[in-house]
From TrEMBL:
Residues 38-145 form the Copper amine oxidase-like N-terminal domain. Residues 157-468 form the Glycosyl hydrolase-like domain. This is Uncharacterized lipoprotein YddW (UPF0748 family). InterPro entries: Cu_amine_oxidase-like_N (IPR012854), Divisome_Glycosyl_Hydrolase (IPR052177), GH (IPR017853), GHL10 (IPR003790), Mao_N_sf (IPR036582). Keywords: Lipoprotein, Signal. It comes from Cohnella lupini. Signal peptide: none annotated.
Amino acid sequence: MKLLHRTWVILLSIALCVTLLGTSISYAAKPASISIYLDGNKIDSDVPPYIIPKANITMVPLSVISKNLGAGVSWKQSTKTATITKTELVLNMTIGQKFALVNGERVDLDATVQAINGRVMVPLRFVSKQMKLNVTWYQSAQTIKLQTLGGLSDNALKGAWVSTVYNLDWPSDKSYGNSEQQKQEYVQMLDELQAMGMNTVFVQVRPAADSFYPSKLVPWSKYLTGKQGQQPDYDPLAFMIEETHRRGMEFHAWFNPFRANTGEKGIADFAPNHVAVTHPEWIVQSGSKMYINPGIPAARQHIIDVIMEVVDNYEIDGVHLDDYFYPSDGVFADDPTYLAYNEKNILDKADWRRDNINQFVEQLGVAIHSAKPQVRFGISPFGVWRNLSKDFSGSDTKASVSAYDSMYADVRTWIKQDWIDYVVPQIYWSMTLEIARYDKLVDWWANEVRGTNVDLYIGHAPYKLGTPEIGWSKPEEIIDQLKFNTNYFEVKGDLFFSAKDLRRNPLGLIPLLQSYYQVK
């Protein structure tokens, strides 16, 4: 996100950009790895912030802030005094002096102004009080969050998944072939979600190698008309995008990449242009389900082409993938593929599978950002990357499956390589389920994205409210999770699975959400 333009009314500046001409002073603390964010945007600095031990005072460089907020700056070498001016504010700060002059009046400082590598450093508490900034210090993340008066509005992502597979969320099976009813259902769903505080929808436009839009590559989804390949009398995707944007909400197109069927058993059940018909050699049967084989490069490219058809032709805000890569259970018979398409000579088939998915994710990200840099690309993996028992860097969990070992989703690599813009781990457990505690997993994922350009959103499970699983007997479980997330600057928003479960108001959740999100 680019730093938004700030008007003069927004802020009295804390800025300073000076060269101290040989001035230097010793300091008590070794510079720590502390990050600064201004209104959600990371600010780079050649002199990092640091903490003065015992006093527990954070020192920040004014020069960095000045470049983003545009204050007037002057430096008087003879007295080693910096003067910062903006609007009706005049600040004077002198090296080694434990007070500053604010419009001529003396204001004590928590610690003296210091010079580090030719840059002025001042105590954060002084900055927050005098410069009209909202400042938050996240100890665990070693991160300073600065917000100007104009940046205090809550623009965090608040989203709902809209499942079209099996007509779970939209459209209803009673609306087959009735475009007006489908439109009415979508509008009503949007209005209800927005009234709860949602600002983004993630709509499944490819449930199973099909589409909710006119495509040259895949057939129409059967969940529109009841029959795969049958064309409706409108473009559902175009309609949904328009209605969503009309409400000032974002629309992310959700693709299930490799699933090829949802109950169809034979060729007769598929449309003539379905991949199971046109490329049966790409299909692997695992139990009752068919999958497009991720090990075949041409098959992966086909899926990328399908997704790019939407990116190129529709005004979407994002491309979203779920966790259907390799199936997490059953036998996946891909030995012949492993032998035929292992140009890197990867010895372990599990590593080869992960490499197949890695190539797919990287190439898809490149394609999206080359075509439309503004379109965000994100993935929602299973909530546990790896258990601690399997990997010393894994989470303190005892999940029976994991993204890395079961779906062959090497999410850590995607994050570290910046192949994706955001990640949404499906943390569908409560704060009290010991084998996979919500709080431990949020902490783990926050640590994974820390210091990267990848945003973290958390996937929540309102569908579990009222079920016998531990921790889901009260609606406050969801609110407690949302509150817990505020401990981590890395958490930039929340998604709920799914729309129908929010709309049914489980255990009275809706008014609690409206209160938490301060819906007017």
